Amino acid sequence: MSFESLGLKAELLSAVQAQGYTCPTPVQAKTIPVILEGRDVLAGAQTGTGKTAAFTLPMLHLLSNTQQGTPKGRAPRALVLTPTRELAAQVAESVKTYGTNLRLYSTVVYGGVNINPQIDQLRRGVDILVATPGRLLDHAGQRTVNLSKIEILVLDEADRMLDMGFIHDIKRIMKLLPPKRLNLLFSATYNDDIKRLADGILRNPELIEVARRNTAAETVSQVVHPVGQTRKRELLVHLINEGNWQQALVFTRTKHGANRLATQLLKDGINSTAIHGNKSQAARTKALADFKSGSVRILVATDIAARGLDIDSLPHVVNFDLPNVPEDYVHRIGRTGRAGATGIALSLVSAEERDLLKNIQRLLGRNIQVQEITGFKHEASAESSAPAPAPRQPARKPHERTKKAAGFGCPSRRR
Ligand code: AMP
């Protein structure tokens, strides 16, 4: 399967080529032709599977088919809703990257920053608007955006939008859109809430599923280091120094914990910064930029802040605390081993976190390898540090039908 065979126009193919992509990922191969046909899509795909290009490329293709002259005062024709500011910024960046050879205009609006430059951008006219729900409704309320010309709607990471309580905002936004439009809904998980949302928005959608990262992330090696809660930081510093890590993303359960750890690491001489929901948008953007540029070595993050962060080829992800929700573990380790690169996901697990580990292993359908680091074994007996055996029949979720790897390599040709 090649990008050329998907039906995308030359301007998009050359943009894809410029990114160095040789062949479409599974979600791209399945989704792009369906969207080009003008059909609604309900896609189960996580961050890291190439889902952004899966909706952005055909969206740009369709919009450029009905391209209009200058953008002056033009109301947006495509709307992409995302749960977080970071994801909105990243999607907007992808729209610009893939649309570089087309004369389409885009902008992004999200909260936490001055609204006036956004109003100016919207007034100048755009084809594609990427937005978080709250700020979009602010614009709608002030009549600084006109949503009556939307032809394509994308709900990106719809499950996370519901988790974050955006359902009422989404419903309000839907009322502002024209009834006839193309609808694309992307969600990492599929449950009754997503089904209800999809039923209310999509018309006869094509259902597309690709392997979840947990079954797919074969390039990510996972390991558990048992350690006492109070010695976790010491162990982390030991691992960073011994392994001479260049960079790592470290997850904590709380915002306070993220701040505390980043500060402690700084005291240990390791350049670190924290990213979480209590930080201003400017501080979050700066933390991410510093990390991406390599000037910050360790980024300490909470789950929500890290959601959707596109950080290329991150070699290490550390679970300083295990997440309460097992699915978050899968999201977290999806930050490494992306796009076929190898990665290591380490979990520092205290005796108190045994049950959390058990639940994660049940979701994965297997045990994670345990490796004790000399001098750091936690206070409890070695036996109690051993992970509970995974069930023989791993619990399957409806969206886990495909067990194939969501690798990014081109599938080998049949002989
Ligand atoms: P996403 O799931 O959209 O967050 O994409 C994950 C990462 O995969 C991003 O860094 C993309 O640039 C990259 N990517 C997307 N499509 C491809 C492709 N066909 N080949 C290689 N990398 C890709």
Walkthrough of the structure:
The protein has 415 residues and is of the alpha/beta class. Helix content is 39%, strand content 15%. It has 2 domains: 3-213 and 395-403, Rossmann fold, CATH 3.40.50.300; 220-370, Rossmann fold (3-Layer(aba) Sandwich). It starts with 9 loop residues before the first helix and ends in a 30-residue tail after the last helix. The chain is globular. Adenosine monophosphate binds next to helix 3.
List the helices and strands and how they pair.
Blueprint: H1 10-18, H2 26-36, E1 41-44, H3 51-65, E2 78-81, H4 85-98, E3 106-109, H5 116-124, E4 128-131, H6 133-141, E5 152-155, H7 158-163, H8 167-175, E6 182-187, H9 192-201, E7 206-209, H10 213-216, E8 220-226, H11 232-242, E9 248-251, H12 255-267, E10 272-275, H13 281-293, E11 298-301, H14 303-306, E12 316-319, H15 326-333, E13 343-349, H16 354-364, E14 369-370, H17 382-385
Parallel strand pairs: 1-6, 1-7, 2-4, 2-5, 3-4, 5-6, 8-13, 8-14, 9-11, 9-12, 10-11, 12-13
Helix pairs in contact: 2-3, 3-4, 6-8, 15-16
The structure holds adenosine monophosphate (AMP).
Adenosine monophosphate is lined by residues 21, 24-25, 28, 47-53, 310, 312, 338-339, 408.
Task: Give the tags.
415 residues; 2 domains; alpha/beta; binds adenosine monophosphate; Rossmann fold; globular; 15% strand
CATH topology title of the largest domain: Rossmann fold
Global structural class: alpha/beta
Distance between the termini: 15 Å
Please, what is the average pLDDT?
A: 85
Q: Within the largest sheet, what's the order of strands?
A: 3-4-2-5-6-1-7
The ligands found in this model are: adenosine monophosphate
Shape: globular
Round the Cα radius of gyration to an integer and report it. Answer: 22 Å
Largest sheet report: 7 strands, parallel
| Share of helical residues | 25-40%
* Poorly predicted sequence stretches spanning 5 or more consecutive residues: 213-217, 380-407
